[in-house]
Write a structure and sequence with these properties.
Helices cover 70% and strands 0% of the residues. By secondary structure, it is mostly helical.
């Protein structure tokens, strides 16, 4: 009986850890997307991560890189920024 309880506890811990993903809340995602959209002129060639970080405190190098690459391919919009930020944080 002890072994069954132990296995169930370990299984519950495993399931909890696997389902615990880092992500932005929906309201945060919209807020952060709007902030980037307001400062979209920063995401152009010649502007490095350091300068972006001074203007947008929460941006990390991975998010910066993804938004920069997106800005080179297409105009930044709320929709594509939300998609990029949500993909970035959950993968």
């Amino acid at each position: 009986m002890f072994i069954i309880k132990l296995i169930l506890i370990l299984l519950l811990i495993y399931v909890f850890i696997c389902n615990n993903k880092e992500s932005f809340k929906s309201s945060e995602l919209i807020k952060k997307s709007k902030e980037v959209l307001k400062k979209k002129d920063l995401f152009k060639p010649g502007v490095g991560y350091g300068k972006i970080k001074k203007h947008i405190k929460w941006v990390d190098p991975v998010i910066y890189d993804d938004i920069y690459k997106l800005s080179l391919k297409e105009p930044l919009t709320i929709f594509n920024l939300e998609k990029t930020l949500s993909n970035n944080i959950t993968e």
